[in-house]
Amino acid sequence: MGRYLLRRSALAIASLFALTTLVFVGVNFLPGDPATAVLGKSATPEKVASIQKALGLNKPIWEMYTNWITHALQLDFGHSLTYGTGAYGYSDAVQGTAVSELIGGSLKNTAILASVSMILLIIVSLSLGVYSAMHRGSIADSGVQFFGLFFLGLPEFVLGALIIIAFAFYWPILPAISLDVTPKNLVLPVLTLVLVMMGSTVRLVRVGVIEVLKTNYVVTARLRGIPERRIIMRYVIPNAIAPVMQVFAIATGLFVGGVVVVEYLFGYPGIGTGFVSAASGRDYPVVQAYAVVLGCTYIVANFAVDLIALLTNPKMRAKATS
Amino acid sequence: MSSTRKKQRFRSYFSVTGWIGLSMTLSVLLIALIGPLVTPQNPDDLLGLPFGVSQPGALFGFDSYGRDSFSRFLAGGRYSLVVAIIGYLVGASLGLTLGLLAAYSRGWVDAALAWTSEVLIGFPALVLMLLLVAGLGTSFWVLVVALASVNVPRILRIVRASGREVRDAAYVEVAEARGEPRRYIMFKEIFPSVLPAFLVDAGVRIPASILLVASLSFLGLGIQPPASDWGLIISENRVALTVQPLAVMGPIVALALLMIGVNLALDGFKGNKSSYRRDIS
What we know:
The complex is a heterodimer.
Chain A (H helix, E strand, L loop, with lengths): L1 H27 L5 H6 L5 H11 L5 H13 L25 H36 L4 H13 L4 H15 L12 H31 L2 H8 L4 H39 L4 H10 L3 H29 L1 H8 L1
Helix pairs in contact in A: 1-12, 5-6, 5-8, 5-10, 5-12, 6-8, 7-8, 7-10, 8-10, 9-10, 10-11, 10-12, 11-12, 12-13
Chain B lengths: L1 H12 L2 H19 L34 H7 L2 H27 L3 H14 L3 H12 L3 H25 L5 H8 L4 H37 L11 H7 L9 H22 L14
Helix pairs in contact in B: 2-11, 3-11, 4-5, 4-7, 4-9, 5-7, 6-7, 7-9, 8-9, 9-10, 9-11, 10-11
């Protein structure tokens, strides 16, 4: 178990390191000078030089990198190039709004949207998936399967636009855009996210549970005449936790991308919208910060899921020890 | 006689819903490819009021600038499709070669490739692409490279996993004993048994690539205006979804049909189901 933990932690740390390196390289060393790019037509040699100095572009690579990392570890991602009265696009002043300040509020909004959607997604896919698995081959099962095919892999902006047309145009009961965070504004974005993700998660949960139902120990338990309810509680659920957790761990990758798209579609003030507008405006310090935050969420979520799977499942524990 | 047999063999690849799905997919691809050639109006011309409603000669009404929505829909499928397919092909050839290399070599080459791909898969696909596009711009080749960098590690992982199953097989040992070069063993001995998994993966990954490119242009970081593109059309007209929903109907229906068609086709595919594992990461 110790070895597995060590391996898994090493992978998580390597991923975090690769993430920060990629974010850094992606923004600083790709062709095109960030200072010129952000200034666009208003670029003068003095302005370019002052941005380059502020971003530390005149220092050696390694110094820049360690500088950025040490500051990032303290949640200091520098200052925005486009937001705030002191931003470079608007005046010659040195600094725009601090990136951490920009991100703080949107991070909270996204956390609300993401956690509500994720909790709903888990509840819905667990109940539908387990129910389909228990009643394999029934009409309800085929119905859920077929229904799921329609949402599997459908892009968020397509389903979201359909949902907006349905609930804000043909049957106008909910707002089409969600510029601030109220329960009513959350309904449609959450619905979009849950429906898009459900297509795959319900199917995968169903497969995971069916695999457990087929095992010899469940068959034996049935032959011994143990009541079905007890079989499910005692044998099926504990063994299905690991594969089912894995489903949601893999789904977080899609989920992160989905949140970005859904936020942008509904105009929701979260990190997705912020990330996209920073990327379009080439606001490099902000892009870096958002990419790190999004990437970290995913890496940490995956790591946590693996740990929980390890702790809750005796078989995994045994495998990891050997 | 021979035509009946041919029909039977044809039918046996897919179930009925599978055939329906396949034809849905192919018709969307067809529209995307030949659409730009048959637009009734010039898709860039301002012909009506912004968000003007449907009228004779403008089936889907007008878009945010007053351009003909139907013509823009017809013109808007090809670019993303071409970027996605080239991005997939670049990623697939690299991923396949590196995956076979990892499967066949042992030791540090395998370990390095496996770890690198594992780490790269650790990035959400869309975030990785956004990051590259933010740094490099939105030109055609940047989009291709960004998409390829999403696909390479995922294809590598699948090829490596199924290649490892046969690398100890007797026929590989025989080929080694004959003194065949590594390239020969990788592509002539190991590749055939990797092929089914690779093709099933392609069936999922090509449409997923199309949707990733479409998502990028929806976010305004793919093809740039005034070009016409399905993702961009939905993005440009999203403020008027409740006023002129017809402006986005074409792209929405096409993208939905594409994905539902692919799902039905894969679900109804009667080939080797054991290697059919849907990888949603």
